[in-house]
Write a structure and sequence with these properties.
With 199 residues, this protein is α/β, with parallel strands linked by helices. It is 43% helix and 12% strand.
Length: 199
């Protein structure tokens, strides 16, 4: 098929290790056309139980990493006339979710940073957007103490009549990565079957 896949690993909470990863990408492929910032972490606890380390850990991996990874991605993309950067958020950025303080706030930062990146990287031919997913049944959901309650809510209260599937999010990312989305800039596309439209 003429395609090649390589795995590059880095702790994205460590800016220097992330820079090394982008250098390896350049050495291997010589270019970068698409960067999807999908790595995430967080501490799921009530607000009054949070510690400074919980806040710093979550913000570093979810928000700070997007800024510095986008800088490195943009350096490679501008060499070939541009590219696409896509962040990943969640509905917890715009709605209260129990035990989600650190993650929700970090994802709100991702959405805000998306707008700034979109404006400042546009002259380099780089389009930046974010996809925000509704509840998707993945391993990440196992960390929620109220997992079953969340699933039932998504099943019964989503106007589309079903939970969001991983492919729903993937298809949105593929669209934003395509030429058809070239004039979409700095937007957060919510893929939740309409759940956030209701109380």
């Amino acid at each position: 098929m003429g395609r090649r896949c390589e795995l590059f690993r880095a702790n994205i909470g460590d800016v220097e290790k992330m820079r090394v990863m982008f250098a390896e990408i350049k050495d291997t492929f010589g270019r970068l056309d698409l960067f999807v910032s999908n790595a995430a972490s967080g501490v799921l606890k009530p607000l009054m139980e949070l510690q400074e380390t919980h806040w710093d850990w979550t913000m570093n991996i979810n928000a700070k990493a997007l800024l510095f990874a986008s800088q490195e991605a943009a350096k490679l993309m501008q060499e070939t006339g541009g590219g696409k950067i896509i962040g990943v958020s969640s509905i917890g950025a715009i709605r209260y979710l129990e035990n989600y303080t650190t993650v929700g706030v970090s994802k709100a930062a991702v959405e805000s940073l998306t707008r700034y990146l979109a404006v400042e990287l546009a002259p380099l031919g780089i389009a930046v957007n974010t996809v925000s997913g509704g509840l998707i049944e993945t391993e990440a959901l196992d960390h929620f103490p109220n997992k079953e309650e969340l699933i039932q809510d998504a099943i019964h209260k989503t106007p589309a009549g079903r939970m969001v599937q991983l492919n729903d999010l993937v298809n949105t990312v593929l669209f934003l990565a395509s030429e058809q989305a070239d004039m979409i800039r700095g937007q957060t596309i919510i893929v939740d079957g309409g759940r956030t439209l209701l109380a």
